[in-house]
Amino acid sequence: MEEIKMVDLRGQYLKIKDEIDTAISAVIDSTQFINGPSVKEFQKNLETYLNVKHVIPCGNGTDALQVAMMALDLKPGDEVIVPTFTFIATAEVIALLGLTPVLVDVEPDSFNVSINAIKKAITSKTKAIVPVHLFGQCADMEQIMEIAEQHNLYIIEDTAQALGCSYLSGKYKSKKAGTIGTIGCTSFFPSKNLGCYGDGGAIFTNDDALAARMRSVVNHGMTVRYYHDHVGVNSRLDSIQAAVLNVKLKYLDQYNKLRSEAANFYNKAFADCQKLITPVVMPYTEHVYHQYTLQANGFDRNALVEHLKEKQIPAMIYYPVPIHKQKAYVHDKYKEMDLSVSEKLVENVFSLPMHTELSEEQQQYIVDTILNFIENF
């Protein structure tokens, strides 16, 4: 049996090696490394795939979130609601811009932001909500959009973990994650479902004016060279990464299908184990399984993770500390808020290897190792 990896980027690369190598060589031959033809081609291809009017490539997913908030002209002191159970980048950019992150709890089944928690957190200072489509499925966008319309709020979708996922119900049926709110943001970090071979990101919107402003912001605030209409940043997707993404975008639906098949294997194998809570897929969304995340129910999660490592099985804990308990974000206001779901999840969740190259033999070994541990716990 081959070595089990949390993400097997090499195995994925070898299957498309000729296409990738040709695409990279073409960029090197052209010497158009910044804003070259491959960037424009990828932009158009992603617009078509997402069925969105505007894609603005940028340097990484964190920049995508920052540029989105800069383009919305949010002011210091404005409040932005964000789940506390997520990667730090989502709240980080809010704080960096002098805005006020308002951290709220998540749902116990989907792990996505709680609708009731959003409603309770809205004040006269609230200007935006950042739903994070965590681990690969959409947040409840229909209800979130209703709240946004009632309170005149911006919605910035963080779809770094759910690119290619479709919404399945109501007025947003068949829309892709990231194309429902005011602005969508994603990351092309190598381990993502659509990952490049370095850093990369993109922003999407159907708003012409916002798109024009974000294109300016990512390029030092320029609309015409050396004329700076906005305060901007330097955040560009380089041509080599765009070339890689152009190849891999053609395979994204196939990659997501393979992830779903791997998740189904795990689900069936763990179906009768009462001490494991398998991922719950909400009826209004697909799940593209950026992570396959279980909950331990009545046994020591940390002991299992260590046991798996001893058996050469990687496992990760996303995320061990909620944002409201991180030193940089601790605030007395969170003592008054109910964040109990997130606080329980960080004690119990763990993620198993999930990628396009998993073999049935590898998955069976993972499953048997886990079930044997639980049986003897």
How many extended strands?
A: 12
Helix segment tally: 13
Tell me, briefly, the overall form.
globular
The strand order across the widest sheet is 1-7-6-5-4-2-3
- Alpha-carbon distance between the two ends: 27 Å
Uncertain ranges = none
Which percent bin holds the helix content? 25-40%
H/E series: HHHEHEHEHEHEEEHEEHHEEHHEH
Strand content: 5-15%
Given helix and strand content, the structural type is alpha/beta
Calculate Rg over CA atoms: 21 Å
Largest pleated sheet:
7 strands, mixed
Mean pLDDT equals: 97
Describe this structure in words.
The model has no long low-confidence stretch (mean pLDDT 97). The protein has a seven-stranded mixed beta sheet with strand order 1-7-6-5-4-2-3, sandwiched between helices. The chain has a three-stranded antiparallel beta sheet with strand order 10-11-12. A two-stranded antiparallel ribbon has the order 8-9. Helix 2 (17-30) packs antiparallel against helix 9 and helix 4 packs across helix 5 (89-96). It is of the alpha/beta class. The longest helix has 19 residues, at 252-270. The radius of gyration is 21 Å and the shape is globular. Helix content is 39%, strand content 13%. Helix 7 links the parallel strand 4 (126-129) and strand 5. The protein is built from 13 helices and twelve strands. The chain has helices at residues 9-15, 17-30, 37-50, 61-71, 89-96, 115-121, 141-151, 208-217, 239-249, 252-270, 301-310, 340-348, 360-375, and strands at 54-58, 79-83, 100-104, 126-129, 154-158, 183-187, 201-205, 222-224, 227-228, 276-277, 292-296, 349-352.
